[in-house]
Each structure stands twice: as C-alpha cells, then as structure tokens.
Amino acid sequence: MANSIAQLFGIRYPIIQAGMVWASGWRLASAVSNAGGLGLLGAGSMYPEILREHIQKCKKATDKPFGVNIPLLYPDIDKLMEIIVEEKVTIVFTAAGNPKLWTEFLKTNGCIVVHVISSVKFALKAQVCGVDAIVAEGFEAGGHNGREETTTMTLIPLVKKAINLPLIAAGGIGSGQAMLAAMALGADGVQVGSRFVATPEASSHPDFKSEVLKAEQGSTELTLKELTPVRLLKNPFYDQIKKLYNEGASSEKLKEVLGRGRAKKGMFEGDLVEGELEIGQVAAQIDTLLPAESIVNEFITTYNATLKRLTPLG
Amino acid sequence: MANSIAQLFGIRYPIIQAGMVWASGWRLASAVSNAGGLGLLGAGSMYPEILREHIQKCKKATDKPFGVNIPLLYPDIDKLMEIIVEEKVTIVFTAAGNPKLWTEFLKTNGCIVVHVISSVKFALKAQVCGVDAIVAEGFEAGGHNGREETTTMTLIPLVKKAINLPLIAAGGIGSGQAMLAAMALGADGVQVGSRFVATPEASSHPDFKSEVLKAEQGSTELTLKELTPVRLLKNPFYDQIKKLYNEGASSEKLKEVLGRGRAKKGMFEGDLVEGELEIGQVAAQIDTLLPAESIVNEFITTYNATLKRLTPLG
After folding, report:
1. Element (H, E) at A39
2. Using CB atoms, which residue from B120, B121, B314 is nearest to A300?
3. Mind giving me the DSSP string for B227-270?
4. CA pair distance B130, B138, nearest whole angstrom
5. What is the pLDDT of residues B163-206, one digit of tens each?
C-alpha cells in the first residue's frame, strides 16, 4: 500500500524538512525536495518579498514539490498569503495559531494544507477546519511548543486515535531509527527539524551549527512555560531569560527581553551570547554536518536496516 | 538471534513490569511472570518483613523468574538486602541512588543486577559498577524522574550509543506499538509501569485506578524539578505542592508537605484529594482495566501486527 503522506504531496519518501526560522530558505528546501523528501521554506523569519524571492529561487532549484511553513501569528500574514497564491505554492504548513483563519482560503486557492499541533484538542480543531494532514509535535522538539509537555512517544498514538487524517510525527526524530519508531507509533510520515540545521544548505550561522554539533543531553530546555513555551539551547541569553522567569518577571518584561530580533541574532548572525538559539533535544545525537541529501538517504537506509533487524516476538 | 533481555532473565518476552510503590506486590508480579514477562516487586513501599512475605508468596504463585525493585535511598536498605540474599532472589533492579553502593554485594550473592537511570552520565556510571543491564527512563514516565527532561525518543539512542549492555526502555510505553518503537530506537526490551497499574492484580486502590483510566493529555506534570523531579497526576494535593513550589517554598517546607505518607494515602488508600498520585503521561492512552496476562498478550500481538504492517521505504 502506498504511503499516505508520500501520496498526498507527490514525493518519494515521507520525510518533511521542518520550516524553521533562520534555517530553511530555498537552498535547504530544494535540496531536501531534490533528495525525495519535502522541503519547506520557513516564512516565519522572512519579510513578504523575501519569501517571494525564496519561492522563485526554490522553483528554479527543483522541479519537485516543496512547500512553505507559515506561523499564523505572523504580523503581515495577509501579504504572505497573497504571495502564496500569486506564486502558486501548492503546499502550506500552518503553525502557531488558529487553523480557522486561513485554511478555507488556502484550500480554495488549491493548496494542500497541513497544520502543526501539539495536542489532541487542536488536532481535532484542525480536522474540523478541513486541513489535509496534521503534524503532531512532541515536547522534545526545538523552538515553540505546547503547554501539555506531551512527548512524541505519548502524543502520536493519542492523535492517531483521535483523527482520521494522515499524520506526521515531529519532535526527537533525528535518524531512520526514530523515523521507524514514529511509524510504529502510528505516524504516516515524519517532520525533521534539528537534523537539517546541521547541513551546509541551512542558512543558519556556522557558529550556531557548531553549537548544535556540540550539544549533549541536557543542553536544551523548554522554558517560558506559562508565557510562550520554547525549547532553547542553553547559552547566556537563555540564562538571562531563565533568571528573569524564576524571579517572576512580568510578561511585558520577558517579551521585551525576548524581542523578535533575538532569534535572528543567535541563529542567523551567530551571536551565541546575546542571541536566542532554538533546537530540539535530539541535537545531542547530532555530531556531523552533512548535506541534506545524505541525511535523507541515511534516514531511508537506516529505516530499512532497522526494520529488517526487528523480528517477531513469541 | 535470541533477544538479550529475554535471555538474561530466562523469560519468554522482553517485557518487564516496573516495580512501583503501592502497586506491584506479589499478585501483579507473579501474574506478569506467569504471562511470560518479568514481574518485579516494588520494595520501595514495603517494610523489610513485608517484602519477605511478598517474595515468599510470589514464589508460590509462579515458578517463573521474578525480581525486586529497590530504591537505593530506602532508609533500612541493609535489611532489604539481607532478605534478598536469604530468600535467594536472583534478579534485582536498583533505582534512585548510586549503583556503587550495592552492585558488587548483589553480584557476589549471585544476583542479576539492573540499574535504572535517566541520563547517559549515570548509564556510564552504572556500567562501570558492573551491572548486567540498564533501564533508561524518559521524561514521560510516572513517579520520580531525572532533571534533564530527556524523552524516551531522544534518550534511548543516546544511551544505546554510550553503553555495551542490554538496554531496557521505559517511559511512555503502554502498547505493543510503543514497544516496537522502543526496539526500533535501540532498546532490547521494555519496562512498563502505568499500564500495569490498570490491572485487577495491582495493589493500587480502585479509586486511583479509576483516575488513571480517566486521565487525558495534560493530566500529569513533572513537578518539583529542582528538589526531586516527580511526575504526578493533577489533583488537589498536586495543586498544593505546585502552589508552594511556585511561591518559592523552602526544600524543608516542601519535604514536610510531601512526606512519605502521601503516596500511600493517594495510591494505596485512595485519597484522591490529599494523596500523592504517581503515573506516567501514557495514562492518557489507558481506558481499560485488564488482567496483567491480557496486557502482556496484547503487547505481543500488537507488536507483531505492527511489525508486519511496516514496509521498507524507497
């Protein structure tokens, strides 16, 4: 039987490269799509006209399907949506917001729409809104995350049971073994973020990539739980945020310190002291910088080898 | 090739029933062992002579291997160890403490020793101490847990890479699908806690079992992170602890409120208001009270069916 996620997007392997701020531009997305996965442009860190440029460049760099990830809280979201339609992007992943707002618009304009959630409740909401598939993201994932702290291992079976849509697992998936684990749990495909940061094609700053390679167990933490849960790589900026948070600083104060520029400073400009560094727990498993194509191939090879290694019990 | 965990313990299936306070006495342990898994008596909630009684009853109830789980911080631990030797228990799982203290003693007395950890660092320490296998427990697990908050999905590959011992995965494993996922990640067997609380054989209070069946996503939280991380089912006692913790109460104050009696009150006496209720995130997936034997059989059936469903990619 054909894989529902590969079929939905018209791709070879059900591996989606997460649309990550300051990491996934046209170079990474086209490389993943050319390798048989699905590349996503991370619109969250792009001005509208920059997104247009990346879409156009991505089209030139691959004749395979690719998509765009849009955080629904993006301030100029109308402009992003205009560009999506004008540039005839056919795959859109929406995240961090209410799927009611744009799903119908995108579907009317011929897009396949996928919504990212971290809870059963929002998976059901997204299903009602008519999305074509769901990404369920566990606690171990990098960047912004849910309040329930539900891990991928626990979340995937819960969401699978609740919805009737193709399901993509995210969070903690950095190898073909973890991909197979996700599929065993009931996922139809996987979304991989952190692993694709450690590629030459990611637009992330080389110094940030080095930090990802150095990361060990415990190097990240999900912080700001009551305000806006986000998994950060521990650095002096994280220490500062953590200290303020523990002292009971107001939301306003925290938002001021967080600011939007911090993520760019850290992940794009390579300021490892003052910048915000978002990465998943799985960074502890990542020791090599590899081309995106090699990562896709390694996932598939390991997936198949692991499946072959497993034998029935009893 | 034979499964290393099944071989180590001389059991049919590499499923270990976690030794849980106020849940796993001789009835549960013998039922799991009779079903082909490995039952463990949870010594943490037993006075030494009570443990002796449970060991003797367990021996009468099964001719299969079973073991004892001992938290190394147990106050009268010398007495527990004496009983282990006197009663010729041959399988001991140690947890919550330094494996240096008792591993050699237990090995000298002919025991197979397994140590429970939640970090690579302690896995390596346990290996140096000469244990025979490791249980690696993820963030989603119930009860006491590590500070790193590493999820099962991320932890298992890290520990697998670091050690040369048979590896048992714990945390979030409530079905044969999750068991297969754990094996794909590199585990040789699984330790299952929460799922076995929802059995008639568990000595937990029926009202606590009902709460486990009712649990949904977000019903548990890992709290007291700086003091002694523990995953609790949210109830008025949890609210009280959480409030004190957020107000910055001293360790002494928190320890006083926590007290040792709270766990017994909640899980054994069924006081859902004033008692401490320990359970894993996976409780959200548990909707039925089933005999331990049925759970073991269901795990194996689902494991094999899931393995059969998965096909190579590419």
Report:
1. strand A39-42
2. B314
3. T--EEEE-SHHHHHHHHHHHTT--HHHHHHHHTTHHHIIIIIT-
4. 22
5. 999 999 999 999 999 999 999 999 999 999 999 999 999 999 99
Burial, B243: exposed, middle or buried (Cβ in 10 Å; 0-12, 13-18, 19+)? exposed
- To the question of pTM greater than 0.90 for the whole model, the response is yes
Residues of chain B contacting A312 with CB distance shorter than 8 Å: 303-304, 307-308
Q: Write the burial class of residue B61 (CB in 10 Å: 0-12 exposed, 13-18 middle, 19+ buried).
A: middle
Average pLDDT on B58-70 reads 98
Give the residue range(s) of CATH 3.20.20.70 domains in chain B: 4-203+288-308
CATH class of the domain whose range is B4-203+288-308:
alpha beta
Residue A314: which pLDDT band, with cuts at 50, 70 and 90? confident
How would DSSP label each residue in A104-140?
Answer: HHHHHTT-EEEEEESSHHHHHHHHHTT-SEEEEE-TT
Instruction: Select from B154, B281, B313 the Cβ nearest to the Cβ of A140.
Output: B154
Q: State yes or no: pLDDT of B242 exceeds 70.
A: yes
Q: Return the CA Rg of chain B.
A: 18
Residues of chain A with CATH 3.20.20.70: 4-203+286-309
Q: Is the Cβ pair A181, B177 closer than 8 Å?
A: no
Provide the b/e sequence for B106-135 (b: ≥16 CB within 10 Å). Answer: bbebebbbbbbbbbbebbebbbebebbbbb
Contacts of A182 in chain B (CB under 8 A): 181
CATH class of A4-203+286-309: alpha beta
Higher per-residue pLDDT: A78 or B225: A78
With an 8 Å Cβ cutoff, are B300 and A285 in contact? no
Q: Express each pLDDT in B211-241 by its tens digit.
A: 999 999 999 999 988 788 999 999 999 999 9
